[in-house]
Design brief:
alpha/beta, seven-stranded parallel sheet, single chain, 32% helix
């Protein structure tokens, strides 16, 4: 009886060639009943091509960009920022006005800070309880010691006082900025409003730029004679202006009433929103009328400061036409006599 001898080929692993694979790839190996896969076989298909899986590693040997290089500037990153326990504590004890204070929970309830922080909050300062990592970002990794604050370089006026001052003028105009976060835009609005003849500005406390050093620089001295009120609730402030006899006009790109068709008479408030976002829905509902500036080009909206200037000019153009200017009438009559 003849028995076929066993050869070494019987123990040799068999090669499996999956569909679509070439012979150049490393094959799977069968060892008994267990399938062993080489790491290079863990491929995924993307657009018909095999792609190796990407394994992320911890932040070892990886370049981490500086915080100021990867995120936009906020109002907390202005030059008005102070940090450290002693500088902030000294400023609080001297009743220095702040726009905002960032403080850790541990330090906020420290006996040295607690009562002073509460007093600053009552005076209109925004208190943000944050983690130390957030303070690292705000101070650009400086030694903040758990607290940082933005000094308010401008002394805001009370809304009631602003209304009283404005009503001393004939047909006063007050500008309200809803959600203007760019300090350059806010400074340009202030400069334009003061130059054309508005009586003041109202800005919200949250989600908007305050009067920072950048705003003061762009305003080019207008803030020396132009009052600004900062309010906690913008809708409540608009209702207070209504109760004082002001008519509220909001600017909106989608409004159906062109600005040049509106009769701007009596005390009015002109409300402007941020570029792109515009007025919030709550603000729109509070307005008595929504007006728009007709555009003929392809750009759907205007810069907030430009739109403010155009709307304000239309208000004062109408009032100038309705006012008798006797000095100019005298010049015209003299020319006719000649």
């Amino acid at each position: 009886m003849y028995v076929q001898p066993k050869t070494h080929m019987a123990n040799k692993p068999r090669k499996l060639k999956p569909n679509g694979e070439t012979n150049s790839r490393q094959p799977l190996k069968l060892k008994g009943k267990r399938v062993v896969s080489s790491p290079i076989r863990n491929l995924r298909k993307e657009d018909g091509e095999a792609v190796l899986p990407v394994r992320t590693r911890p932040n070892q040997n990886r370049h981490i960009p500086h915080p100021s290089a990867s995120r936009p500037q906020t109002q907390a990153e202005e030059t008005d920022l102070i940090y450290g326990r002693h500088p902030v504590l000294t400023a609080l004890e001297n009743q220095r006005r702040f726009n905002r204070i960032w403080i850790t929970s541990r330090l906020r309830y420290d006996p040295r800070f607690h009562s002073l922080v509460l007093q600053a909050k009552e005076n209109g300062t925004i208190i943000d309880e944050v983690e130390p990592k957030r303070l690292d970002q705000i101070t650009l990794m400086a030694n903040h010691q758990g607290v940082a604050a933005q000094i308010a370089p401008y002394d805001y006026i009370d809304l009631g006082e602003l209304i009283a001052q404005a009503k001393s003028a004939t047909d006063p105009v007050i500008v309200v900025a809803d959600g203007i976060t760019d300090p350059h835009n806010l400074g340009a609005i202030i400069r334009t409003a003061e130059a054309i003849g508005a009586q003041g500005l109202v800005i919200p406390q949250r989600r908007a730029s305050g009067i920072t050093s950048t705003v003061m620089k762009v305003a080019a001295g207008a803030l020396q004679s132009f009052p600004v009120a900062r309010v906690v609730n913008l809708q409540r402030a608009l209702e207070e202006l209504k109760a004082s006899g002001f008519w509220i006009y909001g600017t909106a790109a989608t409004a159906s009433v062109p600005v040049h068709t509106v009769n701007f008479s009596g005390p009015i408030v002109l409300v402007v929103g941020a570029e792109g976002e515009g007025l919030s829905m709550l603000t729109q509902r509070t307005c008595d009328a929504l007006i728009s500036i007709p555009l003929q080009g392809k750009i759907p909206s205007l810069n907030a400061s430009v739109a403010t200037g155009m709307a304000l000019y239309e208000v004062y153009r109408q009032r100038w036409l309705s006012t008798l200017h006797f000095d100019q009438l005298t010049k015209i009559s003299l020319k006719k006599e000649e």
